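Practice problem: predict the structure.
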Amino acid sequence: SIMDKIGAESIAVYYKDGTRWIFLDENTRDNNGMSRTNASGFTNTIYFDGDSGYDYKVVVEIFAENEEGYDSRIKTCYISL
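Answer:
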């Protein structure tokens, strides 16, 4: 069905410093390319320029909302360059 708004609530990028994850950058649902209104689905690519030799963690929360409510899911990915 058609959602009032659908897309990524947030995409947060971290890099590993020893045993700690350090926050680098975040896009939220109101940033360009993160969500769409009045749609049944949404796809897009958000780019981040990482440096080789680092480990990164990307935490993505996707969502869909309409007059019946709001639902979201969180996915964490680990990337080594």
